[in-house]
Amino acid sequence: MRRRSLGNTGLSVSEIGFGCGPTAGLMVKGDARLRRDAVARALDLGIDYFDTAPVYGDTLSERHLGEALRALDAKPFVATKIALELGDLGDIAGAVTRSVEASVERLGLRPLALVQLHNRVGAQRAVKADIGTGALLTVDDVLGPHGVVPALERLRARGLVQHLGCCAYGGEATAIAQLIDSGAFATILVHYSLLNPSAWSPMPVPRDYGGIGARAVAAGMGAIALRVLDGGALLGAERAPALAALAAESGQSLPALALRYALSNEQIATALVGFSDSAQIEAAHAAAMAGLLPMTFLARIEALQRRG
């Protein structure tokens, strides 16, 4: 498994990340032996970046990943998250501290390599963001003197946190740009896929990310791509038959093409993939090892994308 630099952290990570969310379900619903075997196989293949969160399975993802890592005596790069609800905003520091301390306990890791803000940001608070988990926070909730970042910095001083990350999947572009420009975060979660490459390339898509991924990388942040398979939406998209034909022409599945497309953007540090079993890990590894897509092939994909 090839490795890529994680922004300006000085660290390198596997170009495929093991997504431990509820969509694939392994870390939330699989039995202990299957989870352990899958984690062991991923590590054997060089996949050593694991992405989890307290909200995945109501803490089950963190608990199960921690159990598997302890059984294997393994300490890979583990990224987790914090997600604040509207009721937490009267004591942001307390909520952040409780979340991180609980994650340390469940995962059995100290420090946590990366703690990412799961909340989205906008101009005004809201009970929920348009996409994703937790309340919609303001930039001041995140960067202000009583906000998320000062609380995480205090946890870093205690040796509980190594690096800080934020999320650009959802939220408001102007507010996300302020987080990037603040220099407070080492990494950013960003949506990038065959159906929506707009975090780097302007495209006629329903949700335009306006080049936010490229902006973050230019600021020295490590870009972590999520939804590279679009959570299954790829298979039902209008462009899927044409994309599937391209995949078949090159002798690969549509998921393999989607993963190779994401990895062909060399500004992405790691592309997260959710796994249900070890066979899917093998397939993702094989796709990655096939290498970047040729420029001529990428040009044909772009032509399809621009058709809208």
Output the number of helix runs.
13
The gross shape turns out to be globular
What is the arithmetic mean of pLDDT?
A: 95
Number of strands: 12
Please identify the oligomeric state: single chain
Low-confidence stretches: none
- Provide the succession of SSEs: EEEHHEHEHEEEHHEHEHEHHHEHH
Give the class from helix and strand content and strand pairing: alpha/beta
Arrangement of strands in the largest sheet:
3-4-5-6-9-10-11-12
Q: What proportion of the residues is helical, as a percent range?
A: 40-55%
Walk me through the structure.
With 308 residues, this protein is α/β, with parallel strands linked by helices. It has helices at 26-29, 32-44, 60-72, 92-107, 139-143, 148-157, 173-182, 212-218, 233-236, 240-249, 254-263, 278-289, 295-306; strands at 3-5, 12-14, 16-19, 49-51, 77-82, 112-117, 121-122, 137-138, 161-167, 187-191, 222-226, 268-274. The strands form three sheets. Strands 3-4-5-6-9-10-11-12 form an eight-stranded parallel barrel, surrounded by six helices. It has a two-stranded antiparallel sheet with strand order 1-2. Strands 7-8 form a two-stranded parallel sheet. α2 packs across α3, α4 packs across α6 and α11 packs across α12 (278-289). It is globular and about 55 Å long.
How is this fold's topology laid out?
Layout: E1 3-5, E2 12-14, E3 16-19, H1 26-29, H2 32-44, E4 49-51, H3 60-72, E5 77-82, H4 92-107, E6 112-117, E7 121-122, E8 137-138, H5 139-143, H6 148-157, E9 161-167, H7 173-182, E10 187-191, H8 212-218, E11 222-226, H9 233-236, H10 240-249, H11 254-263, E12 268-274, H12 278-289, H13 295-306
Parallel strand pairs: 3-4, 3-12, 4-5, 5-6, 6-9, 7-8, 9-10, 10-11, 11-12
Antiparallel strand pairs: 1-2
Helix pairs in contact: 2-3, 4-6, 11-12
